[in-house]
Amino acid sequence: MRSVALGVSMLPDTDLANFDAFTTSVGRAPAIWSLWDYWGGSASAFPDTTLLDGLRNGGAVPFVWWMPGDPNNPDSASFRYSTIIAGDYDVYIRDWATAAQAWGGTILLRFAQEMNGPWFPWGMRFNNTPKRFVKAWRHVWNIFRGPNGVGATNVKFVWSPYAPCANLGCASYASLYPGDKYVDYAGFSEFNWGGSSWSSMKKTFAPSMRALAAITSKPVIVGETGSSPNGGNKAAWIAQGYPAVYSKFPKITAIVYFDVDARNNVDNQQDWRLTSQAALDAYAALLTEPRFEGSIP
Question: Which own/partner pairs from 83-88 qualify as long-range (CB within 8 Å, at least 24 positions apart)?
Answer without folding.
Answer: 84/136, 84/139, 84/140, 85/132, 85/135, 85/136, 85/139, 87/139
